[in-house]
Amino acid sequence: MATTGNTATAGAAVEPAAFDSEAYQRRLSGRRHRRYIPIAAGMLMVVLMLVFAVLAPLISPFSPSAQFSDYVLEGPGGRHLLGTDEFGRDVLSRVIWGARVSLQVGLGAVVVGFLVGVPLGILAGYKGGGTEATIMRCTDMLLAFPTLLLALIIVTALGGSLINEIIAIGVALTPSFVRLARSMALTIKENDYIMAARALGGSPLRLMVRHIFPNAVSTLVVIATLYIANAIRTEAGLSFLGLGVPPPTPSWGNILSEGRQFIKCCPWLTTFSGLSIMLAVLSFNIMGDALRDLLDPRLRGD
Amino acid sequence: MLSYMVRRLLIAIPMLLGAMSIVFFAMRILPGDPCLAMMGDEATTEALEDCVRHLGLDRPLLVQYADYMWKSLHFDFGRSIVFQYTVSSYILGMFPHTLLLVLASSLVALCVGLPTGIFSALHRQNPLVDYSSRLIALLGLSMPVFWFGILLLIVFSLHLDLFPLIGGGDLTTVFDMIAEGEVFEYPEDFLAAVWDVLHHLALPALALGLTLAATVSRMARSAMLEVISADYIRTARSKGLHERFVIYKHALRNMMIPLLTIIGLFVAIALTGTVLTETVFTRPGLGKMLVDAIGARDYPLAQGAITVFTMMIILVNLLVDILYAVFDPRIAYK
Q1: pLDDT tens over chain B, length 334 residues
Q2: What is the CATH number of domain B93-299?
Q3: Which chain A residue shows the shortest CA-CA distance from B220?
Q4: A with B: how many residue pairs have Cβ under 8 Å apart?
Q5: A236 and B CB contact within 8 Å
Q6: pTM above 0.90, yes or no
Q7: Ramachandran class of A128: left when φ > 0, alpha when ψ lies in -120 to 50, beta otherwise
Q8: How many other C-beta atoms are found inside a 10 Å radius of the C-beta of residue A257?
Q9: Beta carbons of B269 and A146 less than 8 Å apart
Q10: Looking at domain A86-299, which of 1.10.1240.10, 2.60.40.10, 1.10.3720.10, 1.10.287.130 is its CATH number?
């Protein structure tokens, strides 16, 4: 900023310098705009997916559970754009409805993880001592389980349904949120404004809610975007293993898993559901990555 | 150093016990009776009572808990309900398949991920390299291993007919031949058996390895970036050393430490990856066993498999922590 300012003032006095300054400005803003391309691309895909999921009853050409017995295992094209499955159900409609499950679980699980993990993390980081030790030991214990394994254990215990999947993946994501929130609270609490707030007689609760949390929230939300990608992938994995939403409710994972028997004759079943999973995870990853780089380049590369 | 190792071990033990407790209580908060779930609604009252007694579910929860913890530490997980073997013998039979898959896919991931990660860190000024490497890494991160596996199966097994569709090869023959010293007697049979195992291993290892390569590549990239901005690299450069010398002699060697953390993190990811990979390729192993056990509601088997998974992950983390201190002695004194 300071450099640009200097060039501009120098440019007012000397003619050619002013020209350079403009070119420099243009180049700079061009570079700055280029950084928004991935965010825009990721966001566009995310919004598109949200629209598909919300408007599923309106835009899907058929009901996802309607069975057209004359069109069993029909290839893509024609009446059924993406083909049909072994019960003659329209794959396109099922993929569109599957977006609902993926997004509900993806967003829901991250909200659960956020709501449980962030308060615990801030509490641990702010209080320190025994509170911190207790919370962090429990977190470490849960972190010993990779997300999918922990979610698998919980879903096995609770049984497969949409809510249980959200709870399972949410709990599995919680330790990561605790860790992140704690490390942010540790840095933030060293700031002078925290000391000032405390000197003014702010209670610990007030400090945590009104001062630490608002300063951490933007980073937390950005990282949460990346966890949505993780949650969607985990959901697809659980559904694929037959532990997700029970059929006939379509989810990308169970369409893929059902299509596995037919990879020889009808590869479209696995192709379109797999592609949807990948695109969904990819768009949240791209958006989260770009937002994170924009917010704080130092966070890059986990 | 010794005190550091002891300290790490002392942290690992409560972690292991805690994680095992989580497994136990997760399996116990099951809605409904596991026996009822296993035997179905038609089961007679006597059969149900028999099952409850057989699983020891009639005892107080705390007694069951203590029993589970004590027996698990001896690798005694009871008997499988479906197969009637002891769970530990079943796990022992499956373990080599999973270990082989983890090792092979790690090898693939490291061979692909490390060079690309380092390359993209060194050439990050070139926007083409920077963008394409990041995009490929993102694609790899977003690719679900089970879909990638299916794509590989469609192309290489169904259409090109190069690899088998299912199975894990006859690993027991290989082990038996080694154990009984038949390796030198019938070298051709032995090589054929090994080849068969590798033939079955190729696609699963490729599927899991390539999806993991993205993670490795990203981690290697950031590790390299960290090393390359260190003071000793600037010193080496300002001495006038050739750039190649700086990278190979100074940067790469110092990257080994962050690399270890990568491998530690990564084995945990690879182990979970085996659950999905083995299911896609219908390959025997711990992961497939776990999924099948859950599907068949074979609780002793599922509980045993999860416990073994947890043990392995904690063990690997412990090992990495210790190796970390061996390579970088400063860690031990912190």
Answers
A1: 778 888 888 888 888 888 888 888 877 765 556 676 666 666 677 777 777 777 777 777 788 888 888 888 877 877 777 777 788 888 888 888 888 899 899 889 889 888 888 888 888 778 788 778 878 888 888 888 889 988 888 888 877 877 777 777 777 777 777 777 776 777 777 777 778 778 888 889 989 999 888 888 888 888 888 887 888 888 888 888 887 878 877 787 777 777 777 777 778 788 888 899 988 888 888 888 888 888 777 778 888 888 888 888 888 888 887 877 777 777 666 5
A2: 1.10.3720.10
A3: A301
A4: 127
A5: yes
A6: no
A7: left
A8: 24
A9: yes
A10: 1.10.3720.10
Query: Looking at chain B, which residue has its C-alpha nearest residue A289?
Result: B138
CB A49 within 8 A of CB A99: yes
Q: Is A264 on the interface with B (CB under 8 A)?
A: yes
pLDDT tens-digit readout, A254-293: 888 888 888 778 888 888 889 999 999 999 988 888 887 7
Q: Cβ contact (<8 Å) for A146 and B272?
A: yes
Q: 3-state DSSP helix/strand/coil percent for chain A, to nearest 5?
A: 80, 0, 20
- Of A182, A109, A119, nearest to A150 by C-alpha is A109
B185: DSSP letter? T
Who among A153, A159, A229 is closest to B23 (CB)? A153
Q: Do A274 and B222 touch (CB under 8 A)?
A: no
- Is B27 within 8 Å of A157 when comparing Cβ atoms? yes
Flag if A274 and B14 touch (Cβ within 8 Å): no
Instruction: Give the HSE-up count for residue B129: Cα atoms under 13 Å, Cβ half-sphere.
Output: 12
Indicate yes or no: CB of A302 within 8 angstroms of CB of B222: yes
Of B138, B269, B314, the CB nearest to A289: B138
Question: Greatest CA separation found in chain A?
Answer: 81
- Is B271–A260 a contact, with Cβ atoms under 8 angstroms apart? no
Q: Which value does ipTM take for this structure?
A: 0.81
Q: Do residues A161 and A254 touch, judged by C-beta distance below 8 A?
A: no
Interface of A with B in 195-234 (CB under 8 A): 229, 233
Q: Where in chain B are the domains?
A: 93-299
Q: How far apart are CA A181 and CA A117, in angstroms?
A: 8
State the smallest CA–CA distance between residue A7 and chain B in angstroms. 26
